[in-house]
Every structure is written in structure tokens, then in C-alpha cells.
Amino acid sequence: MGLKIGGRVEKIDGRTLSYNQFCERFLQKNEPVVLTGLMDDWRACRDWVNHNAQPNLHFFSTHFGNSTVQVVECSKKEFTDQARVEMSVSEFIGKWSKISAEETSHPSGSAENCQYLLYLKDWHFVKEYPDYVAYSTPLFFHDDWLNLYLDTYHMHRNPDTTYQEKNEINCSDYRFVYMGAKGTWTPFHADVFRSYSWSANVCGKKKWHFLSPSQCHLTFDRNMKNCVYDIFADVSEKQCPGFRKAVWLECTQEEKEIIFVPSGWHHQVHNEADTISINHNWFNAYNLPLVWKLLVKDYNEAKEYIEDIRDICDDFEGLCQRNLAANTGMNFSDFFIFVTRFSFANLVILHNNIKDFPGPLFRSCNHIRKLILNLTSIKRVALKMQSMNDWRENSRISLDFEEIAKGQNLHSYLGYSSALDKPCQTLHLQSGHCPSGSSSDGQYPTSKPDPNSSHQFPCDVIHLIRDFLKWD
Ligand SMILES: O=C(O)CCC(=O)C(=O)O
């Protein structure tokens, strides 16, 4: 039985949409949308595509052939994902060209070829080729705390292992290139950290099937442990009792169209033509609470999983946190350090702007409102973190402003602050946007963040933000 399709994702010409409208209609409501008209001047659209609108494979082998990339074998399931192998871009292109040639000479042999469908995924192209500017991130997606942070810091450092160079690239950012022949696909999933994502088709065509977060439980088994892998496989009533009740949103994304994937929406994606896409994952003030919610859920699962060894474990909480980092990509401390650094950066920029906006003008400045929106969201999340007693009692993180401002991180911190400042100013200049909830909360910042204060717990961050903005 086929899927019940309840609607299609809206398509909008991105040139007619203001940033303000995008925030209100899509970021805040957490709804998907396809944006057109935003890729015309991308170098990728010229260099990576032939005149017949097919991927220019030759260009990739000659310019980027030596890169080592992750390639999935689409027909091979491994745990909850497809099996991955590593190869060079040249090798991947060689295999792709061979399969295409076979497909052209025996068009009906596709069933056999399907078994060997290879899909290049998660290529950290921007990190590897910073001087080759393939594209510019559309304004709608500039407010990206995740990649901004990762340009300076690591999300998680495993104290037991030293980072290999290879890992430095793999953990470095969430900006990717994907390349795959017609028939390649990505199994049903929700994105890492419950981030937003955007995905731009440089060429080709993708078919997306989405399920809203309110219906995602319908794709899990009775214990809410295992999720469906392929929504087009024969999903049995026994395996997943609610599956047939799910109502899906469908979308065909054409060449030069960008899809915005909201937080926590599960989706499955099929390339219906040979396709190259660029894809970022990110989060910001709007979906930060969802990131924390996922961490709590994954933490509870990690804890439950090893509950029976609690009594014989010297450091049960530490083990839970290590397992959380291994499974989810960060643990509570990583997240806490992230929000603390981010608060500092926002507060410093806010402080530096006070002199430019005296008196009532301060609150009417959109740039300032954006910073206050950021801090409001962080404060709300920090309040929730504060209630996680087990973690607080067992971990002490010493992260003080002085360390960040004066120590060895000085340059990266200042770089981080000014990088953060840029999107805020760009958004301010281009949109006249005032995100709801930000203006009434914010008062005048009165004092600079205290360089001598130490930030060990979420409550320290809450006090810092509260003191600075004089919230009650
Ligand atoms: O394009 C694909 O195959 C998968 C992309 C995806 O899942 C995403 O952007 O979240």
C-alpha cells in the first residue's frame, strides 16, 4: 500500500521573500519550504554542470580528484544507515562513469546496477577547498551558530584520544556536498542534533517525503526504540503499528532549487536524476531548545541502557556522558560550553553597540533585538539545563570569561565574535526584522560581562545574561 500524501511543500521565489517573512513563516513555525531564484550566480552551477544539465564529472576528477570522501552503498544497510566506504573522488567518478556507461548500453539492466549504486555524502568541501568559492550561503541561512562555532572550536573533544588529521576534517563543520546517480537515496531519518538543514540542487532532481514531528511516533516500533529505515519497503503492522496512519508531505526539488528542512522533521530522499547538491545543517535561537530536548532524550536513553551496572560503576554519570557524546555527537558539557561561549560573544557585541544606540533608540535597533533574541533563547535553555541535577552535581566545568578573552583562545574568540557580528548586521541591514518575543524581554544592557567571573553551571550563564540585561 502506498503512502498517504497530505500535501506538497510550498515553493516560493526567494527574491520576493524578506528575511523577516522567512523567520516568521518558516524558522519560527518550523515548516518546510522550497526557495527558487537564489543560485543563479553560483560558481558551482557553472563549473559543476555540463551544457546538457548533467554533472560535469570530468571537472571533479581533474580539480578535486585526490580528495578522500565517504561513499555509501545504497543497497547495503548497516545498523540504522547505509554502509560506508572511503575512496578518492577520482575512484568514485570512475565507478559512477562505468555504471552510467553500462546503463546506457543496457537500459533495462537497472536492477543489477541498483545494487552497486554509490552515493558520495558528507563531503566537507568548503573546509577542504576554502579558496574555491563554489557558492554563497543565501541570507536566509546566515544565522548559523553551529558552523560559526565549529570554524573556531570543536563540538566534542574526546579526552581519551588525540585528534587525527582526518578527524579534524570530519568533525570540522556541517557544510557538505552530495553527489549521486539517478536511483541513489538517503534512508528515513531526522537530522543531526535536530538541526535545520538546507539543501541546494546544483543539478538533478530529488524527491523528498516528510513527516512532521507530531507524527514521527507513527514510524517507530511499539517500544519507540527503532525507526523505519525505508518508507517504501514493506513495513509490517507488527513492526510499526502506526505507520499506515501517517500523512506525508511530498516534494520534487528541481535543479537550482533550495529546500529548507525544519528541525525534527523526519524525511527520506531519492535522487530521480544524476544529482549534485550542497547541504548545510545549522541551528540558532529558534531551534536551540529542540537541540537541548534531543540531548535530554538521548541522555535518558543512554542512562537507561546501562542502568544495571550503576552500582558497580565508579563514575556512572561520566559514562553516561561519554556514551551520549559517542552516540549524539556532543554531551551536556559540550553543549554548556557552546552556549556559554555563545552568550559571551553576544554580550560582548551587545556591549560594544551600546555606545552607538543611546536611550530609547537602543531597543528599536533590529541588530540589537537580534542579539537579545539570541540571549533570551539561551537563557531559556540554560534554565532547563539547570534542572538536570544528576549532571550538575557530577560535573564542574571551569569556563571563565578571562580564559576566553585573554588566554590562548583570544584570537579565535575575537574572530568568533566578529564573525557572529557580521550576520547580525547583515540581517539588520537587509530585513528590518524584529523577531517576536525579543523586544519586550530586553532592557538596556548596563555593564560589561565581568571578566573575573567563573562560569561553571548553567545558573552562572543565566545570572550573567540576567545581570547584563537587567531581566527580573
Ligand atoms: O540529499 C540527500 O540525499 C539527503 C539530504 C538530507 O537528508 C538533508 O539535507 O537533511
UniProtKB/TrEMBL annotation:
PROSITE patterns recorded? JMJC
- What is the name of this protein? JmjC domain-containing protein
Residue ranges with Polar residues bias: 436-455
Matching Gene3D superfamilies, A to Z?
Answer: Cupin
- GO MF: 2-oxoglutarate-dependent dioxygenase activity; sequence-specific DNA binding
Q: Name one GO biological process term.
A: positive regulation of translational termination
Q: Where is this region: Disordered?
A: 431-455
GO CC, any one term: nucleus
Q: Could you name the domain of life of the organism this protein comes from?
A: Eukaryota
UniProt-listed SUPFAM superfamilies: Clavaminate synthase-like
- State the family named in the UniProt similarity comment for this chain: Belongs to the JARID1 histone demethylase family.
Cited PANTHER family? 2-OXOGLUTARATE AND IRON-DEPENDENT OXYGENASE JMJD4, ARGININE DEMETHYLASE AND LYSYL-HYDROXYLASE JMJD
InterPro entries, alphabetically?
A: Cupin_8 (IPR041667), JmjC_dom (IPR003347), JMJD6_ArgDemeth/LysHydrox (IPR050910)
In this chain the JmjC domain maps to 126-299
